[in-house]
Every structure is written in structure tokens, then in C-alpha cells.
């Protein structure tokens, strides 16, 4: 199975990268893309994934931050747009790390990220229209 799938890996990666670029353009045009500093200062909008110019990002997920994440998820689900929360509990609060002795409030940045992040659809087969519908729904939410 891997031999069959590996032949497609580069084209899937390129499609995900293209989809990420479309999201960046659409959120930028809508004025919704904010920096983490602006976001922390209370500016409305979403923080997009950091992309280093020195690496090749495969965009297995496209994770954004929203101050009103749970409301945004509800809004997107009402429009039949799927989202996912991949890391709802920060590592230091997971049961498997309890013996380290950390508790709530010890790593505020990771706790707020766990409360604010959600993944948008990014799979290779998305069309421009589908990506645009996601961005439009988020723009509508923030309007």
C-alpha cells in the first residue's frame, strides 16, 4: 500500500501547499489574518500557521487560532464545513505526564493555544471554490 501511495506524495504535498497559499491570500484579502501580537492584543481575526521560508511545509493540517474558537467551530459546522481540534489538552496537563508535577497555569502559552486552535480542511482534492467557501464562512463569522 505504501508503494502505491508514496508515488503520489509529492503531488499531494504540492496541492496542500497550493491550498495553504489560497487560504493565506483569501484571509489576507478579507483583512482577517493577524499576527500573534495583534491577536494577543485583542485584534479580531485569525492567526495563520507560521511558515518558515527555509523549510518545505507539507500542511498535513492548516491550524489557525481564533479567540472565539468554539463559536467559530459551531458557525462552520452549521455551514457543513468540517474542522478538527488536534491537541485539545496541552502536553503538561495530559495524564501520561502527570508525574512531572505540572499543573494548570504552568505553561500559559500552550494552554491558550490548546483553547484557541482549530484545523481547517486542507486535503489535496479541495477546489478553489471549496477553499473560498471556508474563507467566506469565516469572514461572515467575523463580520
Compile the SSE list and pairings.
Elements: H1 2-6, H2 9-29, H3 36-40, E1 46-47, E2 62-66, H4 69-78, H5 108-116, E3 117-120, H6 128-142
Antiparallel strand pairs: 1-2, 2-3
Overview of the molecule:
Helices cover about 45% and strands about 10% of the residues. The mean pLDDT is about 95. It has helices spanning about 1-5, 10-30, 35-40, 70-80, 110-115, 130-140, and strands at about 45, 60-65, 115-120. With about 140 residues, it is mainly alpha-helical. It has a three-stranded antiparallel beta sheet. Helix 2 packs parallel to helix 6.
- Taken from the alpha-carbon principal axes, the silhouette is globular
**DSSP strand tally:** 3
Main pleated sheet: 3 strands, antiparallel
What is the terminal separation in angstroms? 46 Å
Mean pLDDT across all amino acids = 95
Order of neighbouring strands in the sheet with most strands: 1-2-3
Share in helix: 40-55%
Low-pLDDT parts are none
Rg measurement, Å: 17 Å
SS-based class: mainly alpha
Q: Count of helices?
A: 6
What amount of the residues lies in strands? 5-15%
Order of helices and strands: HHHEEHHEH
Amino acid at each position: 500500500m505504501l508503494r502505491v501511495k508514496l508515488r503520489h506524495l509529492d503531488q499531494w504535498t504540492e496541492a496542500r501547499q497550493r491550498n495553504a497559499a489560497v487560504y493565506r491570500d483569501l484571509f489576507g484579502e478579507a483583512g482577517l489574518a493577524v499576527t500573534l501580537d495583534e491577536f494577543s492584543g485583542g485584534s479580531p481575526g485569525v492567526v495563520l500557521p507560521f511558515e518558515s521560508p527555509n523549510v518545505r511545509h507539507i500542511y498535513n493540517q492548516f491550524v489557525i487560532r481564533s479567540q472565539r474558537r468554539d463559536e467559530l467551530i459551531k458557525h462552520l459546522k452549521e455551514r457543513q464545513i468540517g474542522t478538527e481540534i488536534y491537541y485539545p489538552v496541552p502536553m503538561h496537563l495530559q495524564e501520561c505526564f502527570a508525574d512531572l508535577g505540572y499543573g494548570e497555569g504552568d505553561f500559559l502559552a500552550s494552554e491558550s493555544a490548546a483553547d484557541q486552535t482549530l484545523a481547517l480542511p486542507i486535503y489535496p482534492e479541495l477546489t478553489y471554490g471549496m477553499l473560498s467557501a471556508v474563507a467566506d464562512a469565516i469572514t461572515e463569522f467575523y463580520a
